[in-house]
Amino acid sequence: MTTSWFESADLVSRFKELHSSNPNAGSPSTLSANAIPAVVKARLAKAGLAFQTLSPLLQQAVLWDMGLIVGDVNGVDTLMQVLVGANTTMSSIAYTFAEFSASPAGKGLEQTSCAFNGGTPFLRQKIMAGLALLPSLKCAVELVSVDGQSALLAQDATNAATFVPEPRLYKHQDATQGWTMPAIHFLPRIAQGKPMEAPWGECPKNADHQALIIPCEPKFFRAESANTFLPLPSPVMTAWLEDTTANTDDYHHRHHTSSLGGINLYAISLYRIEEADVFIHRPLGSGAFADVMLGDYKGREVAVKRLLPGRATVREVQALVDEITLLAGFSSPYIVEFVGATWDKPIDLACVLEFMDLGDLRHYLSHQRPREFLWQDKLACIHNIVEGLVYLHSFPIIHRDLKSRNILLDSTKGTKLTDFGVSREQSQETMTNGVGTGRWMAPEILKYNHYSVAADIFSFGMILSELSTHQLPYTDRLNPYDGKPLIDTAVMAMVISDEIKPTFAPDMPMFLKDMAMHCIAHEATERPTAAVLSYTLRQHMTGTIEEETS
Question: Which of 18, 51, 279, 316 has the smallest number of Cβ neighbours within 10 A?
Answer without folding.
Answer: 279
